[in-house]
Amino acid sequence: MLVAESIARYHLRALIILETERLRLRHLSPDIDAEFILELLNDPSFIRYIGDKGVHDLEDARRYVIDGPVKSYDAHGFGLYRVELKTSATPIGVCGMLKRDTLTDPDIGFAFLPAYWNQGYAFESAMAVMEHARQVLGLSRILAITTPDNESSARLLEKIGFRFDGLVKLTEDAPEIKLFTTEV
């Protein structure tokens, strides 16, 4: 491995973006987070509400992190972050900002392992990401999307200040999804 690549991987591992009372949000690392990403992306609730990302082994998980979050950090200065418990560094989910080609503005995204639902972690991390997006990234308009049947995510979005804007399609042949907006 090249020295520069080793240094880059070390910095990627160490880059903590946000901390809350109970949580730490940091860049995802293809080496450190592959097992966690494989578990999260293959959870039935993730597949139902977000979709099958084609991540079926550790190499797929590494490639997902590199081609998704890491690429987004480089291109946009933000992406999905690993959400971990401060007390144990246990990964429990992802939360962060995305920039999709088919949406005019960045959108917030989040997904958590079911064992960590209904404990306020999604709310806590989403509020921190929204504050960071406004104060550090300077974003004035932020979007969010959910499947029409994802009531718990819709409730969370409304709780953090989003309002339902309407149904949209990300591509011509895609199913309709709910679009939420918020502006400063």
Write a structural description:
The protein contains six helices and eight strands; from the N terminus they run αββαααβββαβαββ. The chain is α+β, with helices and mostly antiparallel strands and about 180 residues long. The chain has a domain at about 15-140: Aminopeptidase (3-Layer(aba) Sandwich). Strands 1-2-3-4-5-6-8-7 form an eight-stranded mixed beta sheet, sandwiched between helices. The radius of gyration is 16 Å and the shape is globular. The protein starts with a helix and ends with a strand. The model is unreliable at about 10-15 (pLDDT under 50).
> Which architecture of one domain does the CATH hierarchy give at level 2?
3-Layer(aba) Sandwich
In CATH, the topology of one domain is named Aminopeptidase
Largest sheet: 8 strands, mixed
Name the overall outline: globular
CATH-defined superfamily of one domain:
Gcn5-related N-acetyltransferase (GNAT)
Unreliable segments of 5+ consecutive residues? 9-13
Number of helices: 6
Give the percentage of residues in beta strands: 25-35%
